[in-house]
Design goal:
Blueprint: E1 17-20, E2 22-23, E3 42-43, H1 46-59, E4 65-69, H2 78-91, E5 97-101, H3 104-108, H4 112-120, E6 123-131, H5 135-140, H6 147-159, E7 163-170, H7 178-192, E8 196-201, H8 209-215, H9 224-237, E9 243-247, E10 256-260, H10 264-276
Parallel strand pairs: 1-4, 4-5, 5-6, 6-7, 7-8, 8-9
Antiparallel strand pairs: 2-3, 9-10
Helix pairs in contact: 1-2, 6-7, 7-9, 9-10
Bound molecules: iron/sulfur cluster (SF4).
Iron/sulfur cluster (SF4) binds near residues 30, 33, 36, 71 and 129.
Length: about 290
């Protein structure tokens, strides 16, 4: 496979074929994100993608899922996405599920009918980076979205019948907006009703704009206790929508996973025990992005 730059994929795509059809992120302005900062956005040529499909046809016959990289593949034109999905179906008929990252802007650029059309051609799952349901926090990190636009994007994906995995980022509001961030993120998630919620914990990259703000004292990252209180508040605010819940990313101070609403009380109790010191948390040096 002919990969360019860092290939970033969700943890749940660890066993998937990774077919890179774009390079980087077309937005690339979020101040906390260093994923593609060194990379200009590009759409890979049909020839290169076709060659990778031929490689996968020969060497990836046991992988039933495929993830389309990079950052926001949904930004591709409908024509190009249809072409890619049809070629996956033709060349890799054993692949049953195709997933991609789609940001809210890309979702907005697609009509409901277009999303349904992609689903009909094999697209199964969209990973949406909500990060926060708090407009103030989204502004702070230049996400370019609001509570409402994020909710609209998430709902549209669900209306299209696609599996929706939403990522939220603990600590993104800093110490000052910690509570507001948790409460309004829970509100947004309740309105969206995703199939899966993945909570990551912010690790500030020194070379990012947010890192520069942190260095100047303008942004104060919550400490581990405040991160746990934020997580507790977020989970407490989630209503009874059924979904998978993961807060077991390598960045987490307290790896947690379960199904909501079934495991809500257990998750909350575990956090309370960690805050009280009776459940160990992950040491700072073990955390990773
Ligand atoms: S967080 Fe997502 S949308 Fe923002 S710059 Fe990073 S990859 Fe792009």
């Amino acid at each position: 496979m002919q990969y360019i730059g860092n290939i970033i994929r969700p943890p749940s795509e660890a066993d998937s074929i990774i077919l890179q059809v774009t390079v980087g992120c077309s937005y690339n302005k979020c101040t906390f994100c260093g994923a593609y900062k060194e990379q200009s956005f590009a759409i890979k040529s049909e020839q290169v993608v076709d060659e990778d499909l031929q490689f996968a046809r020969s060497y990836c016959r046991n992988q039933k899922r495929l993830f389309l990289a990079d950052g926001d593949v949904l930004i591709l034109s409908q024509r190009r996405l249809i072409e890619i999905l049809l070629k996956i179906r033709k060349n890799l008929p054993w692949v049953t599920k195709v997933s991609l990252y789609g940001n809210a802007r890309a979702v907005r650029n697609k009509s409901l009918t277009q999303l349904q059309e992609l689903k009909g051609l094999g697209l199964d799952r969209i990973y949406l980076g909500l990060e926060s349901g708090c407009t103030e926090v989204l502004d702070l990190v230049q996400k370019g979205e609001t509570h409402e636009t994020m909710v609209d994007a998430g709902r549209k994906i669900r209306q299209a019948g696609l599996f929706l995995s939403v990522t939220a980022l603990l600590g993104l509001g800093g110490s000052v907006l910690s509570e507001k961030h948790a409460k309004e993120t829970a509100e947004a998630l309740n309105k969206i009703g995703p199939n899966q919620i993945a909570v990551l914990t912010l690790m500030v990259l020194q070379n990012s704009p947010l890192g520069q703000r942190a260095a100047s004292g303008d942004f104060i990252l919550p400490d581990s206790q405040q991160m746990l209180r934020e997580l507790h508040l977020l989970i407490s605010g989630l209503n009874s929508n059924r979904c998978q819940f993961h807060a077991n990313h390598a960045s987490s101070y307290l790896p947690l996973a379960g199904r909501l609403p079934r495991d809500k009380d257990v998750l909350l109790r575990t956090i309370e025990n960690a805050l009280a010191g009776s459940v160990p948390t992950v040491p700072e040096s073990w955390r990773a992005l």
